[in-house]
Amino acid sequence: MKFLRVILFPFSILYGLLLLLRNKLYDFGIFPSSQFQIPVISVGNLSVGGTGKTPHIEYLIRLLSPQFFVTVLSRGYGRKTKGFVLADKQSSVTDIGDEPLQFSKKFDAVPVAVDAKRVRGIKKLMTLFPDLQTVLLDDAFQHRSVKPGLSIVLTDFSKLYLNDFMLPTGNLREFRSGIKRADIIIVTKCPEVLLPIERKRLLKEINPLPHQTVYFSYIRHGEFLPLAGENISPFSKAYYFEHHYSVLLLTGIANTQPLEYYLKDKVKTLIPVTFPDHHSFTKEDLENVKKIFNNIASANKIILTTEKDAMRLKNTEFSDVLNQLPLFYIPIEIDFYDKTKNEFNEHILNYVRANQKHSSVYSK
Question: N or C: the chain end with fewer CB closer than 10 Å?
Answer without folding.
Answer: N
